[in-house]
Amino acid sequence: MQDSSAGISCRALTKTWPGGVHAVAGFDADFAAGQTTALIGPSGCGKSTLLRLVAGLDLPDGGQVRINGLDPAHQRRRGAISIAFQDPSLLPWLSAAQNVALAQKLARQHADPGKVAHLLRLVGLEGFAATRPAALSGGMRQRAAIARALVTAPQVLLLDEPFGAVDELTRRQLAQDLPPLWQAQGTTALLVTHSLAEAVWLADRILVLSPRPARIIADIAVPLPRPRRPGLADSPAFRRIEAEARAALSAPASACP
């Protein structure tokens, strides 16, 4: 386990893809250590690109990302960053448990079969530890990928629509059971989601992004108690924050700063 959580600093980030697609232009943000931040915005606005830049999987054309003052690629190599993107990317020749345990090996951590089994149970894969990805449904593969992202107790957790491939009942259960795991270990989490309710439920802060290239058009605090209890989503405070985020998303492009 890492010995501390990590703050993230993004300064003047710019990324243009081949064909002149400006995904990110002059993006500035700081993410406090131990905080969960949801990124919401129109499809194609650059949310996933931002996660890839923070992870060090892609390099910016301009600007920089620092995680506790260090380059993200360096932090990822030392196992400080875990990523769960929309594509679970499990190795087909390994079982579900072996795919989860592989993250511990790559992070140079001691093997912990008990922790692997615990996480598989939490994500609803108890009884499927020995099953290979081809025999799992899409939602089950995504759940295994989430367990893999959590098993190393990372300083930084990057989640791109982590519950998008699972059914609604499982989605609600995962949203209830998993955040306390990364919050208890002080993990700094960035979450991309298209669900406003999910953003309010999971996050301490919501950044609403403009149409491409991504710029922050609203920065909304989520001062709701943790752990989030059943029934909270029906409270006036929850609905007020959800409405504020919806209004920011619905603002005309001409109103964006």
UniProtKB/TrEMBL annotation:
Domain of life: Bacteria
One Pfam family hit: ABC_tran
SUPFAM superfamilies named in the record: P-loop containing nucleoside triphosphate hydrolases (SSF52540)
Keyword Metal-binding: no
InterPro entries for the chain: AAA+_ATPase (IPR003593), ABC_transporter-like_ATP-bd (IPR003439), ABC_transporter-like_CS (IPR017871), ABC_transporter_ATP-bind (IPR050166), P-loop_NTPase (IPR027417)
Coiled-coil region: none
Molecular function per GO: ATP binding; ATP hydrolysis activity
Residue ranges of domain ABC transporter in the record: 8-236
Keywords, alphabetical: ATP-binding, Nucleotide-binding, Transport
UniProt family annotation: Belongs to the ABC transporter superfamily.
Protein name: NitT/TauT family transport system ATP-binding protein
UniProt organism field: Paracoccus versutus
